[in-house]
């Protein structure tokens, strides 16, 4: 059963159950009021009749010809009266209470066992009576039984009950119709979201809910759902793009390795030729190995839990490790690395943070002019630890500032495709930063390239002890 149908059934059941309970209470209340009016009239008439008889001798006690009580009827009700003597025998009765053909007095006679002054129901043939038993004053043990037909009360009860039943049936259809209409209006947004979710589950990532007006909660849910689908679509498209380029990148070195080895085995060659072919195969294998490592690192970072293996670490420590690992390449190119350390501290995985900075520093060193310098600055900005890596190379065109962070992106600019790399360095760096709650972007207000890393910072330590005694490798 659908959510809408369950909601309609539940709401209808509660509404109609409440209505039925209310009508039942009203019916019972009206019935009690009607019966109470009759009981008061009956008790008044019985007390009056008993009072009139109290002054007569026991042998002359007789029922008067006074009219019966008046309740809802316009005219007095016919009375059924019996005077019971002290021994329980009938001393006097009205003509209609003496029985007759097919009419037994036993129900009336059995009434003498009822409590005094407590109205009760009794059947006399086909007539239903409301009766009461009262004592006769000044005559100990004598009792007066007085009853009147309750047809008027029963007729009113039937009329009220029938009217309420008709009202309930009409309310049933009206309530269900109104509830269906209201629930349809209230749940159409949910139904649109459910249908869109079904289309997305079936592979249609272009499906959107698109609700722009209505209940604020539904509009917000619709927009959030559409944003989720848009992000999912970008992720799937990026995954397809990533797989296609990864396959291409893997195929290129494999083709080189296969070609070099096949060429080496095709015919006998000189040692130098074998050495050249093996060298080409080894270079391709190294490139393939770097690519595999980068892919595994990217997958591990994306799959790791946010707090998996994290620990407090000083920014200066992993910045130093990153710069030290690139120092050899910088020396070969005649590029100096200047580091300005701060006291910022973050929570994260030291090896991943070091790899993040190393990728950016290595990128800057590769594309800095010879005999130039790369500036690495670690500072505290508000509640963030900021690390900037700045070079004076050719820079990045405005149209490629975001694309360079995508895996395997090729472009005319050198930063988009580092030498000897697979185009994953910047993608890995940004993924690591985002997995630590931060981000990386390319600052446009500089000549060359200026990458900025922002990470949530821990409270700064009161003092900073030197943890790297061999820091002379880094130019300060």
Detailed description of the structure:
By secondary structure, the chain is of the alpha+beta class. The protein has 3 domains: 3-158; 216-303, Orthogonal Bundle (Helix Hairpins), CATH 1.10.287.130; 311-473, Heat Shock Protein 90 (2-Layer Sandwich), CATH 3.30.565.10. It has 8 helices and 12 strands. Strands 6, 7, 8, 9, 10, 11 and 12 form a 7-stranded mixed sheet that branches. Strands 2-1-5-4-3 form a 5-stranded antiparallel sheet. Helix 3 packs parallel to helix 4 (216-266) and helix 6 (315-333) runs parallel beside helix 7 (350-366).
Helix and strand topology:
Layout: H1 3-53, E1 80-84, E2 90-93, H2 106-109, E3 120-124, E4 127-135, E5 143-149, H3 151-201, H4 216-266, H5 271-303, E6 311-314, H6 315-333, E7 336-340, E8 345-348, H7 350-366, E9 373-381, E10 384-391, H8 425-435, E11 439-443, E12 449-458
Parallel strand pairs: 7-9
Antiparallel strand pairs: 1-2, 1-5, 3-4, 4-5, 6-8, 8-12, 9-10, 10-12, 11-12
Helix pairs in contact: 1-3, 3-4, 4-5, 5-8, 6-7, 7-8
Question: Could you give a short description of this structure?
Answer:
By secondary structure, the chain is of the alpha+beta class.
Percentage of β-strand residues? 15-25%
Globally, the shape reads rod-shaped
- Taking Cα atoms only, what radius of gyration do you get, to the nearest Å? 50 Å
CATH fold call of the largest domain: Heat Shock Protein 90
Attribute tags:
single chain, 476 residues, alpha+beta, Helix Hairpins, Heat Shock Protein 90, five-stranded antiparallel sheet, disordered C terminus
């Amino acid at each position: 059963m659908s959510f809408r149908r369950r909601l309609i059934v539940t709401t209808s059941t509660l509404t109609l159950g409440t209505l039925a309970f209310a009508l039942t209470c009203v019916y019972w209340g009206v019935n009690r009021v009607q019966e109470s009016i009759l009981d008061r009239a009956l008790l008044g008439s019985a007390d009056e009749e008993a009072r009139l008889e109290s002054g007569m001798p026991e042998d002359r006690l007789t029922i008067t010809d006074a009219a019966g009580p008046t309740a809802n009827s316009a005219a007095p009700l016919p009375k059924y009266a019996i005077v019971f003597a002290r021994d329980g025998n009938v001393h006097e009765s009205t003509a209609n209470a003496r029985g007759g053909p097919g009419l037994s007095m036993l129900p009336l006679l059995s009434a003498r066992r009822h409590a005094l002054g407590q109205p009760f129901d009794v059947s006399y043939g086909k007539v239903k009576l409301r009766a009461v038993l009262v004592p006769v004053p000044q005559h100990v043990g004598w009792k007066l039984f007085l009853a009147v037909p309750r047809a008027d009360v029963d007729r009113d009860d039937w009329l009220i009950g029938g009217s309420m039943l008709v009202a309930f049936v009409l309310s049933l259809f009206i309530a269900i119709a109104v509830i269906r209409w209201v629930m349809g209006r209230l749940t159409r947004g949910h139904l649109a979201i459910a249908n869109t979710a079904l289309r997305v589950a079936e592979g249609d990532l272009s499906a959107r809910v698109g609700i722009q007006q209505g209940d604020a909660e539904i509009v917000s849910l619709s927009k959030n759902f559409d944003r989720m689908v848009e992000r999912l679509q970008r992720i799937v498209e990026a995954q397809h793009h990533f797989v296609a380029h990864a396959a291409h990148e893997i195929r290129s070195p494999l083709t080189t390795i296969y070609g070099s080895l096949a060429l080496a085995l095709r015919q006998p060659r000189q040692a130098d030729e074998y050495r050249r072919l093996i060298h080409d195969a080894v270079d391709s294998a190294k490139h393939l190995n770097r690519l595999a490592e980068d892919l595994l690192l990217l997958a591990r970072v994306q799959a790791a839990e946010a707090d998996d293996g994290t620990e407090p670490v000083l920014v200066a420590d992993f910045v130093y490790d990153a710069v030290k690992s690139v120092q050899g390449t910088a020396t070969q190119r005649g590029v100096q690395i200047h580091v300005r350390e701060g006291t910022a501290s973050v929570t994260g995985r030291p090896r991943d943070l070091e790899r993040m900075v190393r990728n950016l520093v290595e990128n800057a060193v590769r594309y800095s002019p010879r005999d130039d310098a790369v500036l690495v600055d670690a500072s505290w900005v508000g509640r963030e630890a900021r690390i900037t890596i700045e070079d004076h190379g050719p820079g990045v065109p405005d149209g490629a500032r975001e694309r360079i962070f995508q895996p395997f992106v090729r472009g005319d600019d050198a930063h988009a495709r580092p030498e000897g790399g697979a185009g994953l360095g910047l993608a890995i760096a940004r993924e690591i930063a985002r997995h630590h709650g931060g981000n990386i972007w390319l600052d446009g207000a500089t000549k060359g390239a200026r990458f900025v890393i922002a990470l949530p910072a821990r409270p700064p330590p009161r003092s900073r002890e030197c943890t790297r005694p061999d820091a002379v490798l880094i130019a300060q």
